[in-house]
Specification:
5 strands, about 50% helix, Ribose 5-phosphate Isomerase B, Chain: A, alpha/beta
Length: about 160
C-alpha cells in the first residue's frame, strides 16, 4: 500500500465551507489532516498568514522526512497559491482540471495544490484534490533537473 501524505489545509473566507468538507472527507479516507485556519467565517480575513502556515508545515514535514502535501483554498485559488509559493521549498500549483492536478504532481512534484472554491462544485473540487494527492511524481530526469534549477535559484536569492 502506498503511504498516504499528511495533509495541511488552509483557506480564506471564500473557501471555509469547502475546507471543512475536505477535512472531514480526507480524514474519513485515513489521511492525517491539519487545519491551519481560519476557524470561523470573517469576510475580511487575510488569507496569506493561513496559507503560509500550511506551506511552512508542508516544508517542515518534508525536511523531517515525512510525506506531506498542502491544500490551499480561496475564491479563485490564485492568491493562496502565490502566498504558499513564497515559502522556501514549496511548489504550489493551481488545479482546475484533471490534467492540471495530475501534471502538477507528475512533472513538477508540486507539494501544495490551490483550488478556487468559487470556481467548482464541492464534488469537482474534491475530485481535483483527490487527483492531486493520489498522483505520484514521475521522477523523470528532465523533471528532476528542472525542479533542481528552481530550487537552486530559490537558494541563491536566499
Amino acid at each position: 500500500m502506498t503511504q498516504l501524505p499528511i495533509l495541511h489545509i488552509a483557506t480564506d473566507h471564500a473557501g471555509l465551507d469547502l475546507s471543512h468538507h475536505f477535512i472531514e472527507h480526507f480524514s474519513g479516507l485515513g489521511y492525517e489532516v491539519h487545519d491551519h485556519g481560519p476557524q470561523s467565517y470573517d469576510p475580511v480575513d487575510d488569507y496569506p498568514a493561513f496559507c503560509i502556515a500550511a506551506a511552512e508545515a508542508v516544508a517542515a514535514d518534508t525536511a523531517e522526512g515525512r510525506f506531506a502535501l498542502g491544500i490551499v483554498i480561496g475564491g479563485s485559488g490564485n492568491g493562496e497559491q502565490i502566498a504558499a509559493n513564497k515559502v522556501t521549498g514549496i511548489r504550489a500549483a493551481l488545479a482546475w482540471s484533471e490534467a492540471t492536478a495530475k501534471l502538477a504532481r507528475q512533472h513538477n512534484d508540486a507539494n501544495v495544490v490551490a483550488v478556487g472554491a468559487r470556481q467548482h462544485t464541492v464534488d469537482e473540487a474534491t475530485q481535483l484534490v483527490e487527483w492531486f494527492v493520489q498522483e505520484p511524481f514521475s521522477g523523470d530526469e528532465r523533471h528532476v533537473r528542472r525542479i533542481r534549477q528552481i530550487a537552486d535559484y530559490e537558494a541563491q536569492r536566499g
